[in-house]
Amino acid sequence: MSTASRDTGADPGTDPAPPGEPDGSPRPGRRLTLPPGARPYVAPLALYCVTKLVGLTIFARLLEHAGDYRTKDPRFGGGAHWWDVLSTWDGWWYLQVAQHGYDPKPLQPLPPGGMFTVQQNSVAFFPLYPGLIRGVSEVTGLGLFGSAILVSVLASLVAAAGIYAVVSALAGARAGTIAAGLWAVAPGAGVEWAVYSESLFVAIAAWACYCVMRGRWVPAGLLAFLAGLNRPTSAALIGAVGLAALVTLVRRDGRREHGVAGPVYAMIAAPLGLLTYITWVGLSMGKLTGYFTLQREGWAHYFDWGHYTLDVLRNIAVGRNNYLFAYPVPDLIAFQLVIALPFLVALMLRRRPPLVLVAYALASIVTVLGTQQMFGNTPRYLLPVFPLLLAPAAALSRLKWPGLTVFFTTAAVASGWYAHYVIFELGIP
User: Fold this and answer.
1) Which of 141, 238, 259, 403 is deepest in the core (most CB within 10 A)?
2) Would you list the domain boundaries of the chain?
3) Where do the segments described as Disordered lie (predicted)?
């Protein structure tokens, strides 16, 4: 050992403390650094945020250029400022729940002859998102609108990070970063920074799937439970988590690696949030199937095994709009997305993703296409199906950054129209 090592007590091969800092403590004012675990998420979140900001800016410019929102009802796509549009339609209902809570009543029949046969009620909108809005408002002092946007933006960042985590685990960090950017420009992405619950749901779904992939069954079950308090379509995620847990239990190697308690817990906990809320709504309305009746007769949304979707596809294919909830421009974009789905699914399956991702994606697609609802909203309803981004992200990861810059710049600008303006102003989100 050298004399210097003996005198300072340092181990061989280590750097001595800087002059004036014998204990190696950081100097006052030294630049803060991110924890090592957070550093991988900087690039995907930066790409996501920049892309979203570009799209939102184009959206605002288009709204101001058209000016139609100024003449519309503030509840139905209008407002005094362009940003008010972000809290209309479903956003109005979420803010009502955040402000007043629920007032479940027995189903109220409407006069015959109209499209809807019962009066709409806010219990159709699940409680997790408006509950967070109210909580953030109480803690921060922000108004409900500002709190709602804050919740959506923060949730979207958690969602983008979750998508990165899942895709990077399967196709590498570069593909994960690109996947986060693709989610920012996906059709329907305009609701990610609006008063809608999609960002919160995708945040929960992405990390629930990641937990299953890592064998963390307790957080996976808890996240699926929370998803059930956020959206009825959480049934796809709940089923995927439950199926993955069941397959783990059936396989001897799965039991040896993961044990029994964790998967069993996930299977039991996952559906409890959804079942609890649906049951509460039913009991409050005096009819156990009250939630589904409200959706069917108050919003004309119900599972019809794909009959409505096929009817729309036949009409659009021959240039007609002879179907319920016809909005030509959003419907055409949705038509193109539906036509692309088999290709996207095939590419996803070629990557051999884990069972939880396959089950979640396929169940979500079947739910969306098998339900009568506004066809023009199909891109929004498919927004949570992030596993479909796996193959495109992996393919794009072969491009160098100059090519990717051109791609994302073009997509970000275009998304201001197809992913934002179209659904909010040319249709009903």
Assistant:
1) 238
2) 45-425
3) 1-35
